[in-house]
Specification:
The chain is of the alpha+beta class. It has two domains: 2-39 and 154-183, 2-Layer Sandwich (Phenylalanyl-tRNA Synthetase, Chain B, domain 1), CATH 3.30.56; 45-146, OB fold (Dihydrolipoamide Acetyltransferase, E2P) (Beta Barrel), CATH 2.40.50.140. Helices cover 14% and strands 26% of the residues. It has helices at 5-8, 18-27, 146-149, 172-183; strands at residues 2-4, 31-38, 45-55, 63-68, 73-78, 88-93, 107-109, 112-114, 116-118, 155-161. Strand 4 (63-68) and strand 5 (73-78) form a beta hairpin. It is extended, with a radius of gyration of 24 Å. The mean pLDDT is 91.
């Protein structure tokens, strides 16, 4: 099970570094198989919006996209099948280096100029695999670094093997309870807000007994 260190901190005041907490959780019987640091540090990847998508004249599986990043408009060749007009997308500018080591530069792809790259989550190190580009929420500020616009925070992800006798730990809340016991902190358990409806169920549900003898 994947557990976010940042998410745990929403439930308890964590007084340990992430890897130290992982070691302590393992000592209590929760096997932390891996701790992965997730860093968001790509200032040259900004928010863009796709203005137009045209078929590449020399390649069936490529598109030529007009993308605005605020004051500037870029022409970018894209091979993703899900790219579409008016999408908000992460754009790696020329000069950027992606987490996988790929350096972005202005180039020509099958004769068409490409001034950047529309990125997938996998290319940004945010997923193991992606089927297409990352489509962002609409109306983000254009030209702003992605991590700022999306309010992304560096994090550590715990990969925990939860044994069958500990179903109470099959959630962030359960792991936070365990971590709180280790550190001597009470868990700040969120209280659900229940809003009662004044509408009677018989106003929209009708029950008919078709077989009165069976």
């Amino acid at each position: 099970m994947k557990v976010s260190y940042n998410w745990l901190k929403e439930y308890i005041p964590v007084s340990m570094e992430a890897r130290q907490l992982a070691d302590r959780l393992s000592l209590t019987g929760l096997e932390v198989e891996e701790v992965v640091e997730r860093r968001f540090d790509f200032p040259e990847v900004v928010v863009g919006r796709v203005l137009a998508v045209d078929k590449h004249p020399e390649a069936d599986k490529l598109s030529i996209c007009a993308v605005t990043i605020g004051e500037d408009e870029l022409s970018i060749v894209c091979g993703a099948p899900n790219v579409a007009r008016n999408q908000y997308v992460p754009v790696a500018l020329a000069g950027a280096t992606l987490p996988n080591g790929l350096k972005i530069k202005k180039t020509r792809i099958r004769g068409a100029e490409s001034e950047g790259m529309i990125c997938s989550e996998a290319e940004l190190g945010l997923a193991d695999a992606s089927e297409g580009i990352w489509v962002l929420p609409e109306n983000l500020p254009l030209g702003v670094p992605l991590e700022k616009a999306m309010e992304l925070e560096n994090d550590f992800i715990f990969d925990i093997a939860v044994t069958p006798n500990r179903p109470d730990c099959l959630s962030h809340l359960g792991i936070a309870r365990e971590a709180g016991a280790i550190m001597g902190h009470h868990i700040d358990k969120p209280q659900p807000v229940i809003k009662e409806s004044r509408q009677r169920t018989d106003s929209f549900i009708k029950i008919t007994i078709e077989d009165t003898t069976g």
